[in-house]
What we know:
Layout (H helix, E strand, L loop, with lengths): L1 H6 L10 H8 L22 E9 L2 E12 L4 E5 L4 H4 L1 H11 L8 E7 L11 H11 L5 H4 L2 E3 L2 E2 L5 E2 L4 H10 L4 E5 L3 H4 L7 E4 L2 H8 L29 H13 L3 E4 L6 H5 L11 H13 L15 E2 L7 H5 L8 H4 L4 E4 L7 H5 L2 H6 L1 E6 L2 E6 L3 E6 L18 H9 L11 E4 L5 H6 L5 H19 L22 H14 L3 H17 L7 H9 L13
Parallel strand pairs: 3-4, 5-8, 8-9, 10-15, 10-16, 11-12, 12-15
Antiparallel strand pairs: 1-2, 2-4, 6-7, 13-14
Helix pairs in contact: 4-5, 10-19, 10-21, 20-22, 21-22
Bound molecules: zinc ion (ZN).
The site of zinc ion (ZN) has 9 residues, from loops.
Amino acid sequence: xxxxxxxxxxxxxxxxxxxxxxxxxxxxxxxxxxxxxxxxxxxxxxxxxxxxxxxxxxxxxxxxxxxxxxxxxxxxxxxxxxxxxxxxxxxxxxxxxxxxxxxxxxxxxxxxxxxxxxxxxxxxxxxxxxxxxxxxxxxxxxxxxxxxxxxxxxxxxxxxxxxxxxxxxxxxxxxxxxxxxxxxxxxxxxxxxxxxxxxxxxxxxxxxxxxxxxxxxxxxxxxxxxxxxxxxxxxxxxxxxxxxxxxxxxxxxxxxxxxxxxxxxxxxxxxxxxxxxxxxxxxxxxxxxxxxxxxxxxxxxxxxxxxxxxxxxxxxxxxxxxxxxxxxxxxxxxxxxxxxxxxxxxxxxxxxxxxxxxxxxxxxxxxxxxxxxxxxxxxxxxxxxxxxxxxxxxxxxxxxxxxxxxxxxxxxxxxxxxxxxxxxxxxxxxxxxxxxxxxxxxxxxxxxxxxxxxxxxxxxxxxxxxxxxxxxxxxxxxxxxxxxxxxxxxxxxxxxxxxxxxxxxxxxxxxxxxxxxxxxxxxxxxxxxxxxxxxxxxxxxxxxxxxxxxx
Length: 551
Ligand SMILES: [Zn+2]
């Protein structure tokens, strides 16, 4: 090689291939077979840039995919903090390009992902990397890919596979002013949820290239109307349990958190799982939010489009802290997955202390700060908490026929977990008993649709009153209800009497007033009357501080 370059001093080697020089000078090039890169096409004048996206938590962030072909030993090098899945895409893309009938450049393919300091997760970068390589190798016109955001995973055969987070990528394409989004077939309905964005879907890489070259067409996706299905679990299936049904309705109407205590099998899970069905219909914005969260977490079938029902999350008590609040790999936790819906914690005292305490801040702030390896993100967490507990570890404390087999100390420690700062944020506490056979057999209760109508009206009254500052009574500072226009003097003096008699804190009294306000809203009453205060006490007093077991 040294001899070769010495013999050809006047030739610009970066623009003419050595094979060309050798031919002109009559030199036999021995190494051209051993080093095929020596005889390949000239190096591109500049690197190719393709727009892609990487998922970070529940957001898609813009990622520029720069591809450069260098005259060195053939290899694919990816720089710019790729995760393991992105690093492996080099092998997937090579096979996909070859299987689709295109040529993979026999040069050093350098792929740089920008911004370089952002950790790139997910497999959605396969497609922009493949397009960048083909454009750099001259097999795809550059102008075809300009302004287009592509997001998809490639299989070895060249087929495009659906990826999580298409709706987040579509939101990014819209906000960044891209001329459109290219996604794998199956993801187009989810991506088309973002209005005003052109979405194209392809089944494989060959289809994408054919479309970009203008040889074949891809149909732009139209958004299909979402069919709103009624919630499957209906309250009419619950026999008896009048107090619990009332508590559920009040919780839904005012956005209050609820604690239910009762023996095993009394219907706590049955009641809680019907709560999403009586909450008001979601707005388009709320539905888009939960669709994005569930899609980025990989829990949503992208072919279904918009999620039409409020989430109901019921994690097991062995859940880790990261599973509860989010953070493992930047994924959302249960409290974010329950956003705009219900988080049900059955056997609440069995949850580890740190998981219980971690709920305190999100319950106040309605969002949670999650730490990742390379930074922090705020995740939304506007959920309703429904906690359920047995009266003691064995579940038979206070039972009429079954004796409790717990040691007194065990029972006390168990019941201590009901109290504490977290449960100060729970407005409604009720005690359930096993329903009688007559109640179970005796007939159906009111259906969910009727309850939902009252709840929706009560929520509408609250939203009209607060003018967008708060969405429901539970979010409003309790002091506001001390105002004479919202509560009459008789009800306030009754509350004062009860506070003095039961030695309640001011915070507890404010919470009672919020519940009373919701009861008044359900009856379309502009002021809180004494009956509302009495009912609010009934919905709270079952587990009040003095009733705690002191054995
Ligand atoms: Zn017991």
